[in-house]
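Write out the 3D structure for:
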Amino acid sequence: MKYLLSATFVLLTACSGQSGRAPVYDATSTPKPYVATGQSISPGQATYIVEKGDTLYSIAWRAKMNVNTLIKRNNLKKPYIIRQGEVLTLRNVSKKVSTVSQNKQKVASNGCLGQSCAKNQKVKVVKKSTKAYPAKVVDKKVTKKPVSQPVAKKVSDWRWPSEGKLTKTFANSTQGMKGISITNDRGTSIYAAASGQVVYAGSGLRGYGNLVIIKHNYDYLSAYAHNDKLLVKENEQVKMGQKIAVMGDSGTDSVYLHFDIRYRGKSVDPLRYLPKR
C-alpha cells in the first residue's frame, strides 16, 4: 500500500519558515529535543495547525489515530513533508450534517416550508423524453477491482518492558488510565516489548517526558514514557528485549515507566498482550 511507511519510515520535523523543505531526521545523529508547545488535540477535533517541531507521528499519537490514516486523509506524498502553519485534516466532516445544513439554506432562500415546497416542486416537474437505444447496444457495468488491504506482519510475542511493581492499570473510560505504570528505582532498564522501528525519541509531547515510540507493524505501536535517559534514536531498528532507555521521573512526582500499546491509533490494555507473571 502506497501509504505504508515500512520502506522508509522517515520522520519529518515541521519547517519553521514560510518556504523550503522540512528537514529529515538523520538516523546517525542524536535528535535534539524541543520544548513542547502544549497545543492539545481534543477528541473529535477536525483539523490541526502544524507547529515547529511537530512530526507526523507526534501529531497522530496525540490525535489517537493511525499515522497512515493521517497521511491518506491529507493526500501527502513521499517524503511526507509538513510545514509550520500547515492545516492538517484529522477527521472527515460528516456528509449528513452538511446535507442538513444545505437543506436549511435552500428553505431560507425559497421562502417555503413543508407542503408549500412540495406543491412548488410538483409544478416544476417536467416529463423528460426517454432516449431509445439500438437493440445491439449492451449496458456494460464497470467493475472496480477491490483495493488490497495491507497485510500486517503479526507481532508473534511480547515481553514486559521493565522489572518493577505494577501500580496502575488500563481503564476503558474516557478519562481513565491509558496504558500501565511500573515503578522501580531510578536507572532501572527499559526494554523494547517487541521488535520494530523507533519512530519517535524525544521530549516534545507534553505529559510524556522523555518518550520512545516503537512501530512494530502496520497496526501496532508501543510507547515508553517518563524515562531518565533515552538510548535509541529515531529510525533505529530494535529487537525485542533490547535496552532502549532507563527509568526516571521526567517531571513527575515519582519514578516509574508509563507503558502504552496502541492498535491502529487506539489505546488497548497492555495486560492482554504481555505474558502473565
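The helical segments are 56-63, 67-73, 95-110, 114-124.
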